[in-house]
Amino acid sequence: SPQEVDEVVRSCFGFRLPFFGPFQISDMAGLDVYESVLDVLRDGLGERFTAPQSLRKLVEEGRTGTKSGAGFLEYTEEERERLLLERDRRYAALNELLEDLPPVDAGSGDGS
User: Fold this and answer.
1) Alpha helix (H) ranges present in the chain?
2) How far apart are CA 68 and CA 63, in angstroms?
3) Separation CA 61–CA 30 (nearest Å)
4) Which residues of the chain have pLDDT under 50?
5) Beta carbons within 10 angstroms of residue 12's beta carbon
6) Domain spanning 2-100: CATH superfamily
7) What is the pTM of this model?
8) Rounded to whole angstroms, how far apart are CA atoms 28 and 19?
9) Contacts of 102 (CB under 8 A, 6+ apart)
10) Residue 74's pLDDT is what?
11) CA-to-CA distance for 96 and 92, rounded, in angstroms?
């Protein structure tokens, strides 16, 4: 339902988007993790979930994200440490805000 999709976006990847773009989020999660998840999804749900060759190439090169110093983006050790500390600080602050401000009830989605 539209309400379920909204809830998934708010509580999953949408939570991170005020602070980081999708490539930086992927780097922090680990490109090797994304590749493994896509492999499991492909095995269970079909070829449409095959990991892109560009992702596989980065992982093969050891560019697995912030943990290796490079993924889609490159990070010095200082940048990596600062990024991860700032990520944690911002996510904690946003989580506190979301606990204080529940989602707006915009309607049932069925026009009533």
Assistant:
1) 2-11, 22-29, 31-45, 53-60, 77-100
2) 6
3) 13
4) none
5) 9
6) N-(1-d-carboxylethyl)-l-norvaline Dehydrogenase; domain 2 (1.10.1040.10)
7) 0.76
8) 13
9) none
10) 96
11) 6
